[in-house]
Amino acid sequence: MDVKIVATRPFDGQRPGTSGLRKKVKVFQQPHYLENFVQAIFDTRADLAGGVLVLGGDGRYYNRQAIRIILRMAAANGVGKALVGQGGILSTPAASCVIRKYETQGGIILSASHNPGGPDEDFGIKFNTPNGGPAPEAVSEAIYERTGKLDSYRTLETPDLDLDHIGAVRLGEMTVEIIDPVADYADLMESLFDFAAIRRLFADGTFRMRFDAMHAVTGPYAVELLERRLGAPAGTVMNGVPLEDFGQGHPDPNLAHAKELVAMTKGADGLDFAAASDGDGDRNMILGRNFFVTPSDSLAVLAANARQAPGYKDGIAGIARSMPTSQAADRVAEALGLECFETPTGWKFFGNLLDAGRITLCGEESFGTGSDHVREKDGLWAVLFWINLLAARKLSVAELVKEHWQRFGRNYYTRHDYEAVDAQAAADLMDHLRRLLPGLPGTRLGDYQVEYADDFAYTDPIDGSRSEGQGVRVGFQGGSRIVYRLSGTGTQGATLRVYLEFFEADAARHDQETQEAMRPLILIARELAQIETRTGRAEPDVIT
Ligand code: G1P
Ligand code: ZN
Question: May I ask the CATH class of domain 4-181?
Fold first, then answer.
């Protein structure tokens, strides 16, 4: 095997964000750019030499080329075996499943999640550790530091490998095993949920649902699980063929980007259940007839009803939610006498709690829900969990959620995003808020009395690591909150996220339209941060 040592120079800005290194495809296509980041992974993860590496991505533009580059480099860096999803495909939760199941030394996942794909769009890469989860900050930081010092990387000169046929081939001294990307994951799902009950629900013929794969990675997973293993009618999965540009869509399952699906749930004849997942299969949106389940409520409802699913029949250990996620789950934890954790934004912060067995379920307001079955959030898992609940409880989605609100109260919730804002203006806005913090507690903003105001910091209860500057929180008496933070996944300017939550205990007031009910708080949030004067934006670009 002739290892080729290629001279290189460090690139600025290869620090991973909320979820790996995410840039425009054109940035990744610069000579040596991807290679440098990958070499930094091999240099900092010594056990990959002689070990097993899992590799796959969401199938977006540049996925195949990147897989081939990484495979050559893996072989040249002494990796013993690479497990690669057929066609270069692995959804993010499936990659996590495979990393864990085969006790590998970690995985490289190629994805820019819900960001659009194509030659002028986004690409991304991240390293997941042997627990199957996204690299914790210390690991990402070590990789980043290494990218600043590289002067060469290792690769092989070999013809392109066939990624489309299942089976093992050699690449230099390394074995490349092309695996079925769906089977291990589908088996895991079958072990967690009551497939017999769900099969009966579909066989009955009255339950009407659609799953929108948004031309992204979950198509083959959803067809296998819903249509083959569970017997849902053909056509239940929409947009099920993964495309490199996601059919020019924005593969983000929310009310703004999955409009076609949302429309199918409207009216007296609307679907009973509809769901969608994102580019790499880790996000989910849950809809009932004329009903949208906020991701924060979804986490709380799953937690309160977890015992209905065989995989959680003995109850759950604890619950965690990211800081901006609504406090609906906290109320369930309190009622069930469970521990509840508030972590910074990003799935990596759940890893230690899951590994230590302190939590079973966790979630983020950004359409992310998951459990200890893998170490990533998991779109189809959430969808199956919901169908399992509907089959077991024999209630509609709306009935299930309203029953939940009656018991626990309703946390009205919305997120307003201001995208591609001038980066300096966004940073100044956050500084302005931070300066206000000490003076806020005890003051009144409209009808709301400020109870606390801080810049969220988190000490990991397992390893004691500290993460600061995780978002500005303004908390009011009675449980309402405004949270501000800047996105760590964007590739253009800055994205300001404003998260708003207000609590309503009275069931007679649970049927208000969210934006209307939250109007006073929305106006307070805009004024406090001087959003329009500082960013020139009168209205958010995306409301979820
Ligand atoms: C966003 C979400 C966050 C999620 C991440 C990866 O990050 O807000 O909850 O973990 O994508 O899917 P952000 O752009 O806000 O940094
Ligand atoms: Zn994603």
Answer: alpha beta
